[in-house]
């Protein structure tokens, strides 16, 4: 009861704060489902949207609801069946959800909801411990070629973006991606310890998660998986180094299945405004996220291509669900 | 010197207020099962954005410490652990409460949390760089060996019959296998239910087996001889004897909890098991444990708070959040453009020392807030039984729904409640099931990770001195009781 009361109090405090800024907001009272627990990437993306939209007065208030489970597919299923045509309910998702739908063979797929905007893109970093004798991405590809099983990778959860990149690199080295020896950790944090402890050969994680160690020189970043160089990151894209591999850990936002065209246009305009606001740009910089914005229509066609590509990668590793 | 500067920074009236709010919120959410400190900190992030970094971090530290402590209150009084790390506390703590010694149990938990928090915070201030060097060296083989020690010590929670204890443990291990396998991404034992893909939530099992099971048991005995726990017998404060029996477990608990909390995959549960078993082994009065031994509350409670402080070590020195709450706190750092990591101590020394000082303050605040509350809490037990247990059922269901709003979760909770009732009815201990659910998946994952890294060579566990030593300890702990028994029988025959 205590906590409930306090929860109400906190919510009321948030509400009153946002009310003060926005009396005539474009959007009303939104609720965003973050299909993961507090503290994860989707949760922080949802709360970032909450922060910027209420501060800039684009939305009157935003409530973030955590529905964790199964790479986001539990939250997706709940959203797709529950939101109907309600324009005030949104869902955060990303590349991991696309992968989880494929590998778990989830009954509700992303085509059940409406893509609204692709928002952020995390570059993945390919790193080795500072003490490693692997100095360049070519050294690493050579190592894979000579001993694919002995090239032990550390990265985030199985079937996630990190795992996909390890498979793509193995393939680029000319080896069978199903042989990739990928040790899955729960997120970049635990994998980081395995890297620093020298227990594995190479690691993959979001650049931001390892930024501190890369800058302090404990880890050596060989390449990033982003298509273009990023300001402030020394490591160059794989593509620029002659390896034709690209993978971005993108996150986007989705609208309810039966949202009317009119509402959809309103939402698209609102997110367009948010993405272009200074507040959003500042926040991206603070979190180390790249601006990877695509409006609704382009996001939809990107999603179709990306789904096919990821299905191909996961099938090659033997992770696609039957 | 830097620490003194940190105190100067943290000891403003405003920051003290933040610490008080944090500890109060933390204690409150710790009491309600399901709503953890992580969710609370996440909810508060947008609010604290307006504050200065120091103030909001102080509040978060208060929530974290408060949450770790709050879970023990319901575990002791109502046999309803609010979170996994309080499961062990319920074992002896609730026995004490039933004997009218709820006051001393709560007091030893509060003071133990304070002492352990103090020791561990000193540890952060002076040992963080050392601990972190050791912690990253800790490989999957070492975690597996640590799990083995924990498994061996689990027998301490078995109650009277080892066979029944093992049955209960097996149930927990089976439940632990459910969900997506961490290494291959394949679903195991989920029976096509998407909600099971993430496995069984530990709090759901703990709340189901302990709280709901207990409530059903009380209802079933209503007509016969409902055992009404005594509210208060003797003083609600700790006697001299209680102090004497508590202070060593506090320190030992802190010594176990802090380093394990500092490990990237250490967690808060394992040290509570280890501490409970250690105190049981060291206790001179062999009948004390199982009948409300204050050591069994003092040690694990100290261990769990010390481990909370321990998680600050990888967070501050590596930027590595090892618990959900730490992950949200990391986001808190980032919203001020501060990136925790190896450079944090250099780049933002003042903030780090303010945070460390605020940990001290939050810790002291915890004691100030909670000691006077004990008298109030104990009176909970004076509520008429039907009201009390109806309240527990509401609390349990509400907490579970708050953590994971789904019908399936509620059904699982009820099923565990029925299982808990049946286990109680037929005298099976419920704690080993929870322990199995916590340890099983961790051991499974670390074993396979180790073998994956060694390319399938099992010698990896013996080639590292650290894991070899721990496995040897586990082996000795397992075999020694039998050897001693055999020896004494041998001697008896000779005489």
TrEMBL record, chain A:
Signal peptide: 1-22
Keyword Signal applies: yes
Keyword rRNA-binding part of the UniProt annotation: no
Pfam entry (one): TctC
Gene3D superfamilies per UniProt: Bordetella uptake gene, domain 1, Periplasmic binding protein-like II
Keywords: Signal
InterPro entries named in the record: BUG (IPR005064), Bug_dom1 (IPR042100)
Family according to the record: Belongs to the UPF0065 (bug) family.
Protein name, UniProt field: C4-dicarboxylate ABC transporter substrate-binding protein
Organism whose genome encodes this protein: Nitratireductor aestuarii
TrEMBL record, chain B:
Transmembrane segments: 16-45, 57-78, 105-131, 143-159, 166-187, 199-219, 351-375, 387-416, 428-445, 465-484
Matching Pfam families: TctA (PF01970)
Cross-referenced InterPro entries: DUF112_TM
Name the UniProt record assigns to this protein: Tripartite tricarboxylate transporter TctA
Occurrences of domain DUF112 (ranges): 16-434
Keywords, in A-Z order: Membrane, Transmembrane, Transmembrane helix
């Amino acid at each position: 009861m205590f906590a409930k009361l306090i929860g109400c109090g906190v919510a009321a405090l948030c509400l009153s704060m946002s009310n003060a800024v926005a009396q005539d907001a474009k959007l009303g009272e939104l609720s965003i489902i973050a299909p993961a627990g507090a503290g994860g990437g989707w949760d922080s993306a949802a709360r970032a949207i909450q922060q910027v939209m209420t501060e800039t007065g684009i939305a009157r208030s935003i409530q973030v609801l955590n529905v964790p489970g199964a790479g986001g597919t539990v939250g997706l299923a709940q959203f797709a069946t529950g939101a109907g045509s309600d324009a005030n309910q949104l869902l955060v998702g990303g590349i991991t959800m696309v992968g989880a739908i494929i590998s778990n063979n989830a009954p509700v797929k992303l085509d059940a909801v409406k893509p609204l905007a692709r928002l952020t893109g995390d570059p993945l970093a390919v790193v080795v411990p500072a003490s490693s004798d692997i100095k360049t991405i070519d050294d690493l590809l050579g190592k894979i070629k000579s001993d694919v099983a002995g090239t032990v990778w550390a990265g985030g959860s199985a079937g996630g973006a990190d795992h996909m990149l390890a498979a793509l690199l193995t393939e680029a080295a000319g080896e069978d991606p199903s042989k990739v020896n990928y040790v899955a950790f729960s997120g970049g944090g635990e994998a980081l310890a395995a890297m620093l402890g020298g227990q594995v050969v190479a690691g993959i994680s979001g650049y931001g998660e390892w930024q501190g160690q890369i800058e302090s020189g404990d880890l050596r970043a060989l390449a990033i998986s982003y298509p273009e160089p990023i300001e402030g990151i020394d490591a160059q894209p794989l593509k620029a180094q002659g390896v034709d591999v690209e993978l971005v850990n993108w996150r986007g936002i989705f609208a309810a299945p039966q949202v009317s065209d009119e509402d959809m246009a309103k939402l698209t305009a609102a997110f367009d405004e948010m993405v272009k606001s200074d507040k959003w740009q500042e926040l991206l910089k603070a979190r180390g996220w790249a601006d990877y914005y695509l409006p609704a229509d382009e996001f939809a066609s990107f999603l179709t291509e990306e789904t096919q590509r990821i299905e191909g990668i996961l099938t090659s590793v033997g992770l696609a669900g039957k | 010197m830097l620490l003194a500067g940190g105190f100067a920074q943290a000891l403003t009236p405003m920051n003290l207020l933040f610490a008080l709010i944090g500890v109060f919120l933390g204690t409150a959410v710790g009491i309600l099962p399901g709503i953890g400190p992580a969710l609370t900190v996440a909810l508060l992030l947008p609010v604290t954005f307006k504050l200065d970094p120091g103030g909001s971090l102080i509040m978060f530290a208060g929530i974290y410490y408060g949450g770790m402590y709050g879970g023990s209150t319901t575990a002791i009084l109502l046999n309803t652990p609010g979170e996994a790390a309080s499961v062990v506390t319920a074992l002896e703590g609730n026995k004490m409460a039933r004997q009218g010694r709820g006051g001393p149990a709560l007091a030893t938990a509060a003071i133990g949390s304070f002492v352990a928090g103090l020791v561990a915070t000193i540890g952060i201030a002076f040992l963080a760089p050392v601990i972190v060097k050791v912690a990253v060296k800790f490989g999957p083989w070492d975690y597996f060996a640590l799990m083995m020690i924990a498994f061996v010590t689990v027998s301490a929670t078995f109650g009277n019959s080892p066979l029944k204890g093992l049955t209960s443990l097996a149930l927990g291990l089976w439940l632990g296998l459910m969900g997506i396998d961490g290494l291959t991404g394949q679903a195991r034992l989920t029976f096509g239910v998407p909600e099971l893909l993430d496995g069984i939530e530990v709090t759901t099992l703990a709340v189901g087996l302990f709280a709901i099971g207990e409530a059903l048991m009380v209802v079933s005995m209503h007509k016969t001889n409902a055992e009404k726990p005594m509210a208060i017998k003797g003083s609600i404060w700790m006697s001299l004897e209680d102090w004497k029996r508590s202070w060593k477990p506090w320190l030992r608990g802190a010594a176990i909890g802090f380093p394990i909390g500092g490990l990237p995959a250490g967690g808060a549960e394992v040290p509570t098991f280890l501490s409970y078993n250690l105190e049981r082994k060291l206790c001179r009065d062999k009948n004390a444990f199982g009948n409300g031994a204050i050591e069994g509350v003092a040690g694990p409670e100290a261990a769990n708070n010390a481990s909370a402080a321990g998680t600050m070590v990888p967070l501050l020195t590596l930027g590595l959040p090892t618990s959900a709450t730490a992950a949200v706190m990391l986001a808190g750092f980032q919203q001020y453009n501060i990136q925790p990591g190896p450079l944090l101590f250099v780049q933002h020394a003042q903030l780090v020392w303010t945070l460390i000082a605020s940990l001290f303050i939050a810790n002291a605040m915890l004691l100030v807030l909670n000691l006077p509350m004990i008298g109030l809490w104990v009176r909970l037990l004076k509520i008429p039984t039907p009201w009390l247990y109806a309240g527990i059922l509401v609390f349990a269901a509400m907490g579970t729904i708050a953590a994971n709003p789904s019908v399936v979760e509620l059904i699982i909770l009820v099923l565990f409640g029925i299982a808990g009732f049946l286990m109680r009815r037929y005298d099976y201990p419920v704690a080993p099931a929870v322990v199995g659910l916590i340890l099983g998946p961790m051991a499974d994952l670390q074993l396979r990770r180790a073998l994956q890294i060694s390319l399938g060579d099992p010698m990896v566990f013996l080639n590292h001195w650290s894991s070899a030593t721990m496995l040897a300890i586990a082996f000795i702990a397992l075999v020694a009781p039998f050897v001693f028994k055999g020896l004494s029988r041998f001697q008896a025959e000779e005489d």
